[in-house]
Amino acid sequence: MEELLKKYYRPKLPHMWCPGCGNGIVTAAIVKAIDKLGLDQDKTTIVSGIGCSSRAPGYLHFDTLHTAHGRALPFATGIKLAKPDHKVIVISGDGDATAIGGNHFIHAARRNIDITLIVYNNNIYGMTGGQYSPLTPHMAKATTAPYGNVDRAFDLAQLAKGAGATFVARSTTYHAKQLSELVAKAILHEGFSVVEAMTGCPISFGRQNKLAKPAALLAWQRDNTISVEAAAKLPPEQVAGKILIGLLHEEAAPEYVTEYAKVIKQAMGGGR
């Protein structure tokens, strides 16, 4: 681990995450995936918006962009179009990706651009006061929902698949090894890939929902999830109420940058 720290992290301590926050586990899973794949650091760009998770690129020794709230995917799209040979990874929170950034999310998926999006889903706006987000569970409490959130939450995986993402996966900070393996597969996939990383926020979400201890959040992830492989072997009634983790969807489809290059060639008189 010391070698990974020296190679992939900038020496910026103390970090800004709260005690017990799962964001460090997710960030480490991404770094381990990059190391496993042997990616060229000079050809790997990491982009983020605004939020607790979006501070992660500041600690990572790559070309990084910390952009406007909800706008990480448009910036990443520009990078991928300008540098098609670069691996582009976007780090975003549940609010950043699906609230103010929701339109960018669905259109990046629709285009099937070769970008990997890692959504750190802690079910809350952790950095700005604990407001509920589009991924806060139904009737969970938040500062803006002290009696429970009446809105139904998005199923991020179904949203991504429905919008056109060609790789969709989900894991948790409790299943850190699986999470890193899924991130590696997502990076290798040609097309828009989404990994939902369920992470714990003991301060803003946990305190309001009787999960203030970090270990309690990890135990919740363990007890309320089930792998797609295990779920396939069980009757529906035993799977009801569980959250599926693992590789949820993968398909091949034309990739946006490649298709756009064909249009440019045609416009320049080169034909298709």
Describe the structure.
By secondary structure, the chain is of the alpha/beta class. The protein is built from 12 helices and 8 strands. The protein starts with a helix and ends in a 5-residue tail after the last helix. The mean pLDDT is 95.
C-alpha-based Rg, rounded: 18 Å
Low-confidence stretches: none
The percentage of residues in β strands lies in 15-25%
SSE order, as H and E?
Answer: HHEEHEHHEHEHEHHEHHEH
User: What is the percent of helical residues?
Assistant: 25-40%
- Label the structural class: alpha/beta
Using the alpha-carbon principal axes, give the shape.
globular
Distance between the termini: 48 Å
- Report the average pLDDT across residues: 95
Question: How is the largest sheet built, in terms of strand order?
Answer: 2-1-3-4-6-5-8-7
By DSSP (H or I, 4+ residues per run), the number of helices equals 12
**Sheet of most strands:** 8 strands, mixed
Q: Count the beta strands.
A: 8
SSE map:
Layout: H1 2-8, H2 23-37, E1 44-48, E2 63-66, H3 72-82, E3 87-93, H4 94-98, H5 102-111, E4 116-121, H6 156-163, E5 167-172, H7 176-188, E6 193-198, H8 202-206, H9 214-224, E7 225-227, H10 228-232, H11 236-239, E8 243-250, H12 256-267
Parallel strand pairs: 1-2, 1-3, 3-4, 4-6, 5-6, 7-8
Antiparallel strand pairs: 5-8
Quick summary:
The chain is an alpha/beta fold. It has helices at 2-8, 23-37, 72-82, 94-98, 102-111, 156-163, 176-188, 202-206, 214-224, 228-232, 236-239, 256-267; strands at 44-48, 63-66, 87-93, 116-121, 167-172, 193-198, 225-227, 243-250.
